[in-house]
Amino acid sequence: MQCFGKMDFKQISKKLKAFTVGIAGCGGLGSNCAVALARTGIGRLVIADFDAITEDNLNRQYFFHHQIGEKKVLALQKNITDINPGITVITHEVKLDPENIPVIFKDCDIIVEAFDLSEMKSMIIETVMSEMPGKYIISGSGLAGWGNSNALSTHYYERLIVCGDLENEVSDENPPLAPRVAIVANMQANAVLELLLKRSE
User: Fold this and answer.
1) Cβ(166)–Cβ(144) under 8 Å?
2) Which residue ranges form the domains of the chain, and what is each CATH number?
3) Mean pLDDT within 146-173
4) How many CA atoms lie within 13 A of 6 on its CB side?
5) 148-161 burial, b for 16+ CB within 10 Å, e for fewer?
6) Residue 168 pLDDT
7) At what angle are helices 9-16 and 28-40 packed, to 10 degrees?
8) What sections of the chain are H helices per DSSP?
9) pTM higher than 0.90 for the full model?
10) pLDDT digits (tens, 9 = 90+) for 127-142
11) For the segment 25-60, what is each residue's pLDDT rounded down to a tens digit?
């Protein structure tokens, strides 16, 4: 993929306004990726998550202390709208599965996978690849811990793009921390822009 640098911000936002991006999961990856896309002028976001905000989410997720206890999709919708009132944010307070993923994200140009659990990551990737022909999915893998930023990169596998180091998975001894989580989330957002701006040409 090439870097696009010959458009000003208004031109970029005008092109991105025509697109819809799905965010599967509104935790560390999903909330930060959604905010990055909102700041660039994406036209519409479809966000899905069933969980509520807890205090231990605040070390890496784009929420605030006063939002503890709120549903993540509703709190994220508000935060995004506060940043960019012109964006349309469609919320689905639901646990995603192979049956509802093709329905919820059917109108999305690209889907961002932002789950914590490896089995959920595999599930949505398999669902999109098998049931949603032509759709790209951008995943995150290997973002736990701290340091070694140069190991984080973007890997392209046809319709699947994976951001991260592909090695450092989350565990009690290797927790997800804000710096690396935010880097990978923004790498996912950057991959979305690469695909959409190229398509707009």
Assistant:
1) no
2) 9-200 (3.40.50.720)
3) 90
4) 3
5) eeeebebeeeebeb
6) 80
7) 120
8) 9-16, 28-40, 72-83, 101-104, 118-131, 178-200
9) yes
10) 999 999 999 999 999 8
11) 999 999 999 999 999 999 999 999 999 999 999 999
Residue whose C-alpha is closest to residue 61's, from 148, 162, 70: 70
Q: Long-range CB contacts (< 8 A, 24+ apart) of 159-167?
A: 159/128, 159/129, 159/134, 159/135, 160/125, 160/129, 160/136, 161/136, 161/137, 161/191, 161/195, 162/138, 163/138, 163/139, 163/187, 163/188, 163/191, 164/140, 166/141, 166/142, 167/142
Among 120, 189, 181, smallest CA distance to 161 is for: 189
Give the DSSP per-residue string, 131-184: HSTT-EEEEE----SS--GGG-EEEEETTEEEEE-SS---BTTB---HHHHHHH
pLDDT at 183 over 90: yes
Residues 60 and 184 sit within 8 Å (Cβ to Cβ): no
Please give the backbone phi and psi of residue 28, each rounded to the nearest 5 degrees, phi first.
Answer: -60, -50
CA distance 162 to 156: 7
